[in-house]
Amino acid sequence: MKGLMFNYSLPRIALKKVGLGGDFFLVKYSETWPVPKIFHPNQVLVKTRLAGICASDLHQMTVSMSLYPSIMASPVNPVPMGHEVVGTIAEVGSAVSGLRPGDRVVYNPVARCSFFGFRPCPSCLQGNYQHCFCLLGIGDGTDRERECGGRRRFGGFGGGGFSENLLGYEKQFHLVPDHVPDDVAVLAEPFTIALHAVARHMPRHDDTVVVVGAGIIGLLTIKALRALGSRCRIISLARYPMQVEMAIKLGATEVISERDMKKLYDRVAGATGGSLFAPLLSKQVLYGNKGPDIIYDSVASESSVEDDLRLVRSNGKVVLTGLDFHITRKVDWSLVVWKEIEVTGTLFSGKEPIEENELDAFDMALKLMASDPCGFSGLVTNTFPIERYREAVQCFRSKKATNAIKVVLDFRGVS
Predict the structure, then answer these.
(1) pLDDT (tens digit, 9 = 90+) per residue, 263-297?
(2) CB 3.0–4.6 Å: which of 111, 291, 341, 362 could bond 313 by disulfide?
(3) Is 190 exposed, middle or buried (0-12, 13-18, 19+ CB in 10 A)?
């Protein structure tokens, strides 16, 4: 089968870290990968339809992210790429009861106890599936763990969407309503990321929030705020005209696309009634209890985090959903103390608090998509066959030139 895999080994990673090897040094494309075979009765084989390219895929290609996620590394080698997937069930295991060949599904790549039939671990008991021990290949120590391959030989963060076929457990897949098109369904996994961030850090209706970044997660954060009923004022910080247009469509109150940082600070302060002051030999900082109440940062680069801490109001909150930084050197973290800011990160998704209920984020995402499929139209802007994966990556990286928001690999024409 055709597919793109991570081609990892410690020597290759070391060479890449010191600047040797090209853009695609750590990936391998082949048209002769073996089709995955069902080995557990609760597994299903899925034929990929669309698979979205995520910024985290590119961070892994360039080894430009924290090494922390290495504890969640897939036990499979070569490592399957692609976790934003919509596909069609091709084959089911003997114990599968809720899915059948021909069903259209989306994929949850975050392994958790219930997928394998284990007793729930402490994280799963709390609905924090994103921290399940199964992500480290650790089950409940029963025979079932051995049936799944044995400790540290199963689980991990899943992938496989950049291939014609994807193997997973039945409960990793969620049925897509018939009237939700593929180019909306493929957004389900990134939408769960946004829903998780918003549901766990919901603003008040009279709050002003700033959404930093208008890539797919930033835009879906705006959508999540509105879809979950928030009437807060939303200021989107966007770079490109396509992003500005989409941010307004999805519910932003206003958009600031200023590149000059001093002018950007002035505009955010002016828009929120905040007061900027200039510490000695330092950048300006917004001081006091007037200004952005919550900042959702979908970029989370070192520079954007520094700006978050300076622009959020005193006693405000910064929610980091992006992963564009790891060990920081230039962020003035003392601002967290001086301004008494709450800083939190959000990762993947779990069971989310919505009003008085708790819902699996994937169920919630598909329910919201089913109620408003047109509200997600236009977010998938560029599609490429897998053979043109290099062009797809370049398109993702050149958003100003390509007007790209979500770039996907299209397998629907592969026979």
Answers:
(1) 999 999 999 999 999 999 889 999 999 999 999 99
(2) 291
(3) buried
Q: Tell me the C-alpha to C-alpha distance, in Å, between residue 138 and each of 10, 75, 143, 145, 168.
A: 23, 12, 13, 8, 17
Q: Calculate the CA 117 to chain-centre distance.
A: 26
Instruction: Give me the domains of the chain, ranges plus CATH numbers.
Output: 3-110+157-187+379-410 (3.90.180.10), 200-345 (3.40.50.720)
Residue with the two structure tokens 């006693």: 315
Contacts of 90 (CB under 8 A, 6+ apart): 45, 46, 47, 101, 165
pLDDT band for position 365 (cuts 50, 70, 90): very high
- In sequence order, what are the residues at sequence separation of 6 or more whose Cβ sits closer than 8 angstroms to the Cβ of residue 12? 21, 25, 26
Instruction: Read off the tokens for 102.
Output: 């021909």
Report the range of poorest mean pLDDT among 68-82, 268-282, 312-326. Answer: 68-82
**Model confidence pTM above 0.85:** yes
Q: For residue 67, what are the CA distances in angstroms to 70, 72, 327?
A: 6, 10, 10
Q: What's the mean pLDDT in 167-194? A: 98
> Beta-carbon neighbour count of residue 258 at 10 Å?
15
235 contacts: CB under 8 Å, gap ≥ 6: 208, 209, 210, 211, 252, 253, 254, 255, 256, 268, 271, 272, 292
- How confident is the model at residue 88, as a pLDDT? 98
How far is the CA of 269 from the CAs of 132, 210, 243, 288, in angstroms? 41, 11, 22, 11
